[in-house]
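Hi all, long-time lurker, first post. I run a small reading group and we've been trying to get comfortable going from sequence to structure in the token notation. Rather than ask abstract questions, I figured I'd post a concrete chain and ask someone more experienced to write out its structure so we can walk through it together at our next meeting. Sequence below, copied exactly:
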Amino acid sequence: MIRAESLEKTYEIAAQYGYNIRGLDMLFKENAVEIHSVSKIDADGEVLPLKFLPVTPQIEEVWETRENLIWQNKSLWIVSCEGLLKMKKLAGRPQDLADIERLENEES
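-- Answer (accepted) --
Happy to help. Here is the structure in token form:
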């Protein structure tokens, strides 16, 4: 997730690491969820995508409840389990519904 005002700067930073293949922007649920993507092809010919989800009013709560983890001595912000469930409920696709059921069963 990313603040919308940071999106272009993030594309610039990604380009410095070889991510220069822009994908089509996708909008879901009446623009509640946006997905922007950029990819690169690594030395093995694999496509490595990055996905950016700008914070919209409908998912502001997900942004506010994200969690900070330390990974390889670096600070990393991730979506909380509650936030992930909210986003999956909002999407409502069959795979999302299956994921929700699995995640809720793991919590209990």
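A couple of things your group might point at:
Residues 29 and 92 are 9 Å apart (CA to CA).
The two ends are 27 Å apart (CA to CA).
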